[in-house]
Amino acid sequence: MLLTEKLIRENIENDDDITHELLLLQKGEDLIQKIEANSLKIKLPYQSITKMDATLSGMGNITSLILDNNCIKKIEALETLYSLRHLDLSFNYIEVIEGLESLSDLNFLSLLHNKISKVEGIKKCTNLLSLSLGDNHIKSLKNDNSEIGELHHLIKLRDLNMSGNHLVEDARSTLIQSLPSLKYFNNVKISNEERLTNTLLPRHASRSKTYLLQAQEVMEKEGIESEDLLAQYKKWDEQLTLLESKMEQALKEMTEKINNRIHRVMENMTEGIPSVTAINDEVILARNISDMISTTNSTFDETIGKITALNAQTFQTFDEHIQQNDGYDEQVKLIMTQRTTLFKDQIASYLNAYESISMKHHRERMLSFKPK
Q: Coiled-coil ranges per the record (predicted)?
């Protein structure tokens, strides 16, 4: 069955009870459907639909498209659905992730139970919050640029389902390292303990390499002359890497100081029964931990301010001294913004997790204290 105009018209819903009208315009022998609405949903599960065709192209206001449990083999005809936020194509026969380039505002994408073997075609969907790719034929996330392939573009992703794919690598720890916004993987919540264990410092070297490869790929595309652009990027990369290194060193020093204080408190325990001194030391320790984390947060804020100024200065240099290359310099700016956002989110996530775990352990130690 084709995705016909009549079928769509009969299955349009209003997401938020917003009044809408369907205006049918006659153009020759073709009946064109124009939908005027603020928020519309199309739900067509179990309809034996085999093809997504141009019928969708005139529906720019559609926010939710549900076509699960059909017979669709190819993702297509979505180029003009700029308002789409929710796309469900689960339980179909799709082999390749494609046709999503214009869906930059997409928040939810489900491709569960298809025949997909490679995670690709999603790097433009930078506002994705939830991605479901379970029960496909995916064995690896890697590509030439990143350990997690195109997923590293999804810096806002909170929920990722890859279950039932038999991945050859330890995807969970790698994803936790690379996506600080991720809260759930394969329907299991990521704990603060996991976040700390899998946040490897320093990581500025791997970030630098990953994003430099992306920038070079953009610059070299179609033989664009971009020596000035590449030189400016490398200069920016060196300065940013220095700032990242200093921030990560501050985190390392904070962690070492806190661990040393904890060790001294634990030494005051005898046979597992803490002394009065240990109790007092534990109370002081909690204050010290809070102060040290607060100091590191201030350093973090200063670092982010310096990075913001560095980006602004570099972007201005691009605009003033580098001729426009059909938008290639804008693509490079986007890559740079993604890298700095990732760094910011990784450090913020680490600090939040560290503070939470430190206070949790403090409470546990206090509860275990018994007077002699």
A: 226-260
